[in-house]
Amino acid sequence: MADAASRLKGILEQLLAAPLPVRIRTWDGSEAGPPEAPVLVVRNRRALRRLLFKPGELGLARAWVAGDLTIEGDLYTALGLLAGSIWERDEDARTLAQSLRDPEFRSAVRRLFAMAGPPLPPAPPREEVRRPRRGLHTKRSDKRAISHHYDVGNDFYEIVLGPSMVYSCAYWPAPPPEGTLEQAQHDKLDLVARKLALRPGQRLLDVGCGWGSMAIHAAREHGANVVGITLSQEQAAYARKRIAEEGLTDRIEIRVQDYRDVTDGPYDAISSIGMAEHVGSERYLEYATVLHRLLKPGGRLLNHQIARRPQRDEESYQVDDFIDAYVFPDGELAPLGTTVTLLERAGFEVRDVESIREHYALTLRRWVANLEAEWSRAAGLAGPARARVWQLYMAASALAFERNRIGVNQVVAVRTPESGASGLPLRARVWGAPAPA
């Protein structure tokens, strides 16, 4: 009888109708596939059962999180090779139905079942969050979702994010090794402050303030008085400790508060950095309207938000299974055009949009490097399964940004008064050197 790796390779290539781009090593020690490619290690038969009972991305994610599947070699190369065969296959229900009518396809499925062993579906890893996607984005459900993602442990995030403790796209002067992650995050925070034109004594509302980095930067370097809000108790405690150590408790207040409960406007400026992805499509207009109401006339909003590419049929958009189950429960991405439209419907005048997509890929690769450099400690703090979630999520996201499957944009919007005076300079940004006369 052929070894397990050769048999599995043949079955998978029949199911995918394409050569397998990576090498396989199975639980019996056998290997098959391209000799120079990264190795997909199938550590046990349970990995196959996960794929059979939950075909596609979620089954693969469960096997990865549980440690049933691992990769030897460069993770980015392996994910890039697998993406074309699995994640980026443009197949709909009709294509799947046609495959199931194919006798050879059904035969391959039966052989995979035989390799997998007793037909019992393994329980999902306990890190998985699964609940019906209805009744989303109530204050209670949002708090629960934020807690799942951010209350992993501040020590764990210190490893991944580094001293800046900024969990959003940095702003790089050039690809690494030029510059450090800490400097690039400082430059991003300063870019936000400059776009908001923060001045001493102004009131800034930082929505989704994280561990307090933007609030500290705005108060310390621009003299602003800041209110930061988060739904994470762990983030709030950490931010307050940092603020006390900086001697800024008289200038910064950190609240555990939903944005819908903020009533002490008006503010001169609002920053929302990496928070709007949690709002959800059903609530986005409400979110934009609340922020518009909290700004004084002439005040500016800086909305820093990940965007997905638009689809031909927007009604067919589905939330990524792995992200929803393990990373950002209830999170949603919208196309940039949708975000701009909803901000305008809420009353804002959108004055500037800057894409910094490539910067996020560079940032994510640095976070992955931080995690892998201290893997044992990180796994000890958050658990091996949770560390594998973050490793896969960040590495796959880096590739998605590099391939323009998702992007990230900074939108400057103004609550322009009836006079029409936006308060922005005529040339808010300068594009290169002027042409010679």
UniProtKB/TrEMBL annotation:
SMART domains: PKS_MT. Residues 116-142 are annotated as: Disordered. Residues 131-142 have a biased composition (Basic residues). SUPFAM superfamilies: S-adenosyl-L-methionine-dependent methyltransferases. It holds the Pfam family CMAS. It comes from the Bacteria. The keyword Magnesium does not apply. Coiled coil: none annotated. InterPro entries: CFA/CMAS, CMAS, MeTfrase_dom, SAM-dependent_MTases_sf. CDD domains: AdoMet_MTases (cd02440). Residues 156-394 form the Polyketide synthase-like methyltransferase domain. Keywords: Lipid metabolism, Methyltransferase, S-adenosyl-L-methionine, Transferase. Belongs to the CFA/CMAS family. This is Cyclopropane-fatty-acyl-phospholipid synthase. It comes from Streptomyces griseorubens.
